[in-house]
Fold this protein.
Amino acid sequence: MSKTSDKQRIEELRGLLEKANRAYYVEAAPSMSDRAFDELLEELIRLETQNPELFDPNSPSQRVGGEPIEGFETLEHALPMQSIDNTYSTDDLRAWHDRVRRGLGVESPAGDGKSLFRDDADLTFVCDPKIDGVAISLRYEDGQLVRALTRGDGVKGDDVTSNVRAIRPIPLKLMETTKASLPEVLEVRGEIFMPSKEFERINAEREKADEPLYANARNVTVGTLKNLDPTVVSRRRLNFVAHGRGETVGLDDITTYWGFLQKIREWGIPVSPLAKLCDSFDQVVRTIEAFAQQRSDLGYGVDGMVVRVDRFEQQESLGATSKAPRWCIAYKYPAEQGVTTLMKVEWQVGKAGTLTPRATMEPVLLAGTTVQHATLHNIEEIHRKDIRIGDTVVIEKAGEIIPQVVRVEKDKRKKGAKKIQPPQQCPTCKGVVEQEGPKLYCVNPECPAQFRERVKWFVGRGQMDIEGLGEKLVDQLAEEGLISHFADLYALRREDLVGLERMGDKSVDNLLDAIEKSKSRGMERVLSGLGIRQIGSSAAKMLALHYPDTKALMAATKEELGELPDFGDITAGILHAYLHSPQGQETFCKLEEAGVSMKSTRYQKGGALSTPATVFTGKTIVLTGTLENFSRDDLAQQLEALGAKVTTSVSRKTDLVIAGQSAGSKLQKARSLGIEVWNEEKLHQAMQTT
Ligand SMILES: [Zn+2]
């Protein structure tokens, strides 16, 4: 075949295959058999191999999975991916509805006499099922999929684009329609999930291969998305539905969430066929009730219903708390219960020495997952519920919460059911165990189990953030005797690591890199990473605001520490004792010698409270658009250090909006409310003079 006809045929095949995908996943009306599909795909792959110059990352052939990748880059979301508040009763849902009406009804946020809410007819809602999967943000630019980020911590997520390309329901290109041109930027948030049948198929295969079974579909979905080999993703049939929007440019004619769903569906993005527009709150309640009957037959896990205010204008006016939007709420269906037999109880050692009882039971299927372990909380809880080994127990599981034993069916208790005794010694180090209230502690400061848990915390995302140093690897390093102090992490050599399980050359390089990078996180991350009682990340940040480095911190008296905001005598006492203990001093010394920075990254001379007021003090600030010289995260931190409060949505309470490139609806709203707007240059000047 000639080059031109190859090119034509490639384009034709790409079109046919995308159309077939859309028919299958979006319209739920398959247009060709699996076999016909595979034949066309094979032809496409053959032609593309012969014509490498016609490569397109968004070709359907890329869905079979490209080359394995080295790792995932962490990138910032254009707009944060917030979580959603939960409610478990209709009463709470009504209370939310009242808050929404009050929030919209007081006065027009635009101050133009026009209200966003006169009566209930102004307020419509959209309900859609809350699927138990992995949240993802897909970014399309000019109709092409350019990036897929996991939710991560909501501000930054992992770039899993190459894996997401292998998920068939996700369009690689949006379909142009005659009705509207494609937006310049479209970010769609949605859920990647695994249908129950696929989960069962994978587990059946593993059983045959004598491999351990997966506990639930969600975990396999996470594992699949984080797999470094996209062919694995391609082989597992993951599904996707959209349930939200992120940044959009050129989509101003869409003013409601319902309208948004219809529009993206036209472009070929799957939305839930069960999403429903409700004209009244009563209809919302009826929809939730009706869905309770339906949800066990869907073939995938759904744990609730998300209810949201439909009009974007009203959403923006309601805004968000620091945790979640006010215009949206998830109604969670009651937890499912199951009955099983308790076989044994083990005591697990935590990072502060706490011993927590963990029950092993006969495996039981619950809320779509196989449950085998439950937490028993503490010894008093065990006595209160009179739980014994061999008992028939009722367990409950709600969403991501660890399963719990609700009660014992005592009439089924067999003779010989054994009482559970608190451990006389630590199961790991055999050290002395002491009881404090209902809790048991291993009091041995040298306990290896505690040390391993502390290292896992120290290297975690919110602390030193050493990527690639997971729990299993920490266990291995400790078992091999390579680490017996935090500072030993920084002495690890290439030759120590290459012999370890699952550590190839590339993983070793990446890990050494990540360890090196973590040295400069600053005093506040070190402090919160050490696991000193009462000193979490907010206390550590407060200390970093007032003390430039650990030397200055060591010089502080107990009384001085007690005067810091949110520091009582107890916290000050614990911290002071730690700082002046031989272990504390040794830890600081060794870390510093290892090259870890012990300097604050947010210190302000005189501390935040006695700082002379800046132009930012007490101001509520919103950041929007892309800034050239600041990352949004860093800027928010800096502004907060200067006394400002940084929020995510513009309302009448906003004092100042800082707008970067391609700022969208927030900027418009700020203008309509008459709020002061600064560009980056003005911000830069103001920050220089403070
Ligand atoms: Zn111990």
In short: The mean pLDDT is 86. The longest strand covers residues 336-349. The two ends are 69 Å apart (CA to CA).
